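[SOLVED] Need 3D model of a two-part complex

Original post:
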Amino acid sequence: MNDATVHQEPSYLGAPYGLAAWLLTKDHKRIAILYLISITIFFAIGAGFAATIRAELVTPQGDLVTADLYNKLFTLHGVVMIFFFLIPSIPAVLGNFFIPIMIGAKDLAFPRINLLSWYIYVIGAVITLSVVISGGLDTGWTFYAPFSSISSNTDVTTAAVGVFITGFSSILTGFNFIVTVHRMRAPGMTWFRLPLFVWANYATSLIFILGTPVVAITVLLVAAERGLHLGIFDPRIGGDPVLFQHLFWFYSHPAVYIMILPGMGVISELVANVSRKQIFGYSFVAFSSIAIAIIGFLVWGHHMFVSSQSIYAGLVFSIITMLVAVPSAVKTFNWTATMYRGSITWDSPLFWVLGFMGLFLVGGLTGLFLGTMGLDVHLHDTYFVVAHFHYIMVGGGVTAFLGGLHFYWPKMTGRMYSEPLAKVSAMLVFFGFNLTFFPQFILGYMGMPRRYHAYPPEFQVLNVMSTGGAMVLGTGYFLILIYLLYSLFKGPKAPANPWGATGLEWQLQSPPITHNFHEIPVVTEEAYDYLHAPAPQLAIPASPREVTHE
Amino acid sequence: MSHQVPSIRMYVSVFLALLLFTATTVWVAGLDLGALNTPVALGIAITKGSLVILFFMGVRHNTPLTKTVAISGFLWLLILFSLGMNDYLTRGWLGIAGR
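Solution:
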């Protein structure tokens, strides 16, 4: 298979053709592509909301949009980006595509349920986004009660129902992944030979099925309180608003790990490849994913230090929060140790790896600031928090997703993209991201609160820097869209293993055939056996005059 | 899978038991049991839930892995309740409202 010029069989992208064949497919790879198209659309919508927010904040006066509209913009930005882009991004796209292949299976355990989860996701998203024409949504993505359940004049009920429905998509995907990993591993694919990407998605799936039902029921209770006036969160009729926060963050803090754990899995794959070394401390990295998934469920109260939660509960949550940093640090140290004395290749995936490690480090460490009770009282609900979670979810999550997309694009599409443009875009995203969000740490520290469309004039310089950074960041993202789309039509044809990587997925042709393997493979090697890894293969020019990938 | 195939008779028995407990729930709702109102209602609900999980969902005769999954669901509920009550039960300790 190492010869890039070997005869190609018809891939999963070929027959059967037609829209119906794609919309009714049970092939995990096609469903992954359906998710990729969907989340790209929702990312564009969410980015549009963000662009309007940043344009508004160029001046202190609040002169572009009204306060009400601003509330709706940041709410929908958060809802769309979290529920319809970040949460499904890596699991539903890269996980769907590669987990069966990585473990030597022909598909997920439940292909029909896999397709069903995409339909549920789309239906939930359309219902949620219908609020744009039915009065908007101004509760923030957090739906805090009792504002959401009694005060808001926007269409909270529809959005809550949409989010509730979307939750089932996550649950079904997680359930499918867990059963697949348990039941469908190829002979010889023991738990400790699994790629770390599989471990990370397995841990994420645990959060999907253990946490998502709680938030789904919580937002439904908000809708019930609005519609039926049940006394659940409204203190005037016997409810408790802090109960909402407990229930919401019980899921929504682990949801942060839903967004970052799969990214950590991607980075583990990329680090080993760009260093051409076995991952340092494989089992520690594997178990740290499980530890993050479990400990992540014990820390939710650190979002509630100023909510009237008892100070003793705050103490407990603060201490456990420090614990969750340990497995994250294990991963970061182990990636660094993997790179140490590695044979570093300066392909585009390396740029995303370095970007991720830098941005995740800043995001993670500032999380410790916020997990410290005394400091959080000062920083709570300021731009410091906004900067922190964007460093984790965008700097970490989106960067890892884009790194994974670049790494696996040749395998998914059978085409190579422009390496120089990929490196330029990675650097644009890194610099643009830092220029956007680092000033927000300072703004927050200086006391600028989040979620206001106007601000005191002394904050303007940092806000202009932030908006300028957002433009650079947007340019970087747009460039990626352009050259990836271009590669589909004009890119050199990808060989089976352009990066010289280990793993079953790189032994298949690019793109793979419909059922991945003619025969279930027998695994005899440890994961990341780069001592015996094949050399990278050259791309096949789409036309004789095109430059090949090197 | 090593689990036994349950009989129709078992399904019917469990169904009848669930109907009986539902009728009991309605009957108990009309009685004033004082402080026992909630525990009794919860006890009936837990019994009914257990019957569904053990028999209709087949956990009783299933693999240890399936039992582990079912138990972990309850473990997570325990986490939610215990760390949540960690707030509610300690709110009055400082004697200052909201602290």
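Edit: The interface with chain A takes residues 65, 72-73, 76, 79-80, 83-84, 86-88, 90-91, 93-94, 98-99 of chain B (CB under 8 Å).
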